[in-house]
Amino acid sequence: VQCCCFSPGKSTLVFAGTPVGSVVLWDLREHASSHYRLKIGEAEWTFRHPTFSTDAVMSGSGHVSPVTSLEVVPSFVAGGLRPEVPLLTSEEESSGLSLELASLDESGVLNFWVVVELPKGNEAGSPTDLGLRPGGKVKLLHSSSLLAVQSPSLKHAAKTRPFQTLLLKYRPTDSNQFFIGTNLGLVSHGTSHGLKAPPQFYRFQEVEERTVDISSIHFCPFSPNLFLVGCADGSIRLHLVSHDQPVAEWMNSTAGEPVISLQWAQTRPAVFCVLDAASNLHIWDLLKDDAHPVITEKITADRVTAMAVFGDSGQQNTYSGIALAYESGKIELQHFTQTLTVPNPAEEGKLESIMAEVF
C-alpha cells in the first residue's frame, strides 16, 4: 500500500493504491470469520483480503504507473450540492452508497471510480466481476480518466529529474477543482470538466526552479481560498487559490528537515501544525508570531510517522488537539491548551493583512 483513505462519514470502507497501479478497497463490515486469522503471542490478528481489486481486470482503464494519492471526491460543486448521478442499472439496485473516488498515479493520470454497493454478496464469487472477492458486496466501476498534469516546460534545473505527480487534493467547496503536488516544487491546478481555472501552477516566491517534492497540502477550514503547502526541503508556503505566488513562505522553520504533514487547527484560523521527518512537532500561531512556530516539541522516545488534527469548527467548545501515530504502532491523543483552541476575533483580520501585504 502506497496511499490510502477512508470513506467519508462512516469509516466502513478503506481505499488504497499500490505501486503496481492497482486500486483496492476493503469493506470493514465483513465478519472477521470470513478472513484469515493468525494467533501471534496472546493476540489474534485478522488479515483481510481486499473486497475488490482493479488488479488485472481493468487493463484497459486502470493505472500503469504507481498510484501515489487517493481522495474521495467532495459531494458538492461551487454553488451547491452536486446533482445526484444515476449510478446503477435497475437490476443492480444500490443500497445507498453514492461515492466517487479519484486515484492519481505518478505519471499524472487521474482515474475516477464510482463506488457501488450490491444488495447481497455471492459466496460462490461473481462470473462477471473478476475483481470482487467471493461474498464481497462493494465494487468499483471506472467512470472516466484524464491526464491531470501536462509536464511543465521548465529550464535546465528540472530536466535532470523525471516529472512525477505525488499528491492529490480537492478544494473542499468545489469538487471540480483539484490540486496536485509534484516533485518539482510546483502545485498544479486543474478542473475535472469545463473551463480551466487559472493559475495553472503554484510556485515558490523566487524565480529559480527547485527540484523538491511537495509532501503535504491542506486547505484552511475557515477560508477555502487559502491553502498550506509543505515540501521535502522543509519549506512551508501559504497560497491564495487565485495567485501563483505564495502570500507567505517560511524557509527555515524545520531546520531543513522534510515536512511530512501539515494541517490547520479546526477551531482557530491562525493556528496550524507541522510534523517533520526528525519527529519534531511545530505549532504555529500567526497571531503571536508570523515568522516562527510558537511551540516546537521534539519527540525522541519513539518516532512519529503521521499526525491528524481534530476538533469541530462548528462547535464553540475547546475540544481540539492532535493525534500522533508512532513507529511502534502506538497512537496518542494530545489536547491543545485553551490558548490554541479558543478563537480570537483578530485572527481573520490577521490572515487578510498577510494577503493584503502581498497584493
Automatic annotation (TrEMBL):
Superkingdom field: Eukaryota
Record protein name field: WD repeat domain 60
Species in which this protein is naturally found: Xenoophorus captivus
